[in-house]
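Technical appendix A lists one of the benchmark inputs used to test multi-chain prediction within the project. The record comprises four sequence entries:
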Amino acid sequence: MKVMIDLCVIPLGVGVSVSEYVTACQRVLEEAGLEHQLHAYGTNIEGDWDEVMSAVKRCHEVVHEMGAPRVSSSMRLGTRTDREQTIQDKIQSVETKLSAD
Amino acid sequence: MKVMIDLCVIPLGVGVSVSEYVTACQRVLEEAGLEHQLHAYGTNIEGDWDEVMSAVKRCHEVVHEMGAPRVSSSMRLGTRTDREQTIQDKIQSVETKLSAD
Amino acid sequence: MKVMIDLCVIPLGVGVSVSEYVTACQRVLEEAGLEHQLHAYGTNIEGDWDEVMSAVKRCHEVVHEMGAPRVSSSMRLGTRTDREQTIQDKIQSVETKLSAD
Amino acid sequence: MKVMIDLCVIPLGVGVSVSEYVTACQRVLEEAGLEHQLHAYGTNIEGDWDEVMSAVKRCHEVVHEMGAPRVSSSMRLGTRTDREQTIQDKIQSVETKLSAD
């Protein structure tokens, strides 16, 4: 089963700057070879369910290893059986409609 | 690694009533033997990371099997290395402070 | 327009314990006279859209006033035009189905 | 108070394709003159709290007016009192760290 998620990882107990933790998670995704796209309040990730969730777990582990005693993430998860749809497809489908005005 | 999540599963393409799908997910959690607590906009679930995520995957699969071509969930995920904390602990810690007023 | 939300407020830069901030938010909801129900990973709140959102804003303000330089919340928001549904209705509708097994 | 949010609006009871509803919400944001950035699983929006929340309400209203009897959104909301930070700043801060490897 393919899944597209949107993940935002928040380390607690380590101050207000979270960019080094977000950067570490980006590296986890690159090492996992998963398609992903950073935005200002999370990251889109797509792939096989088990591979994606394994990367999410690794993100939590890495952020703890960096010193955060607590991690709270928020995530959206989308699956569909009617057809495949990539990160690019989803953005394209809205942009096409917008430019048709 | 232990995790506490809050999961809200939304089936798309099947009408406005989602309670039968939520009910099916509750059964998945019971069969998995995971501690869980339903509320009006999601379900708290706690347990071992892999067992919890396996149940989340099973929820998506079951909702698809029931006929929903698309499923979009939102989830919070909390892990901590400083100490263990159950669903009851978290609620208790706020209620104690509230009653101390 | 009525809305039901599920709100989880996370203060950053103040350590790992967040229960005193959650408690302060519970007081905001009580002072606002809004129907609400705490769970282990957030709070269900229902009422008129503007009143509910005004309370969410007040929660952010209060948590900042208590010393958190940064606040990151996650929220689900549900509105419907087909019928009214309370926090109790939603839970009841699943529990009735579960007990019918 | 400034806020940065990440909003994902899901119409229920209207089939599996949601792109026309997402497109309508993009127009709401443009008409409101709010800085925003679409991604594959939501939209980043930044601005004054009241203006941003007013646009979120308008999105729900518009999606109902288009025929969806039920709307369920998920949203992240970030506020900070220590400094201002734009959508571009947040992405830049991670990309700078990544490219420093």
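Strands of chain B lie at 2-12, 35-39, 42-48, 70-80. Chain B touches chain D through eleven residues (CB under 8 Å). Comparable benchmark entries are summarised in Table A2.
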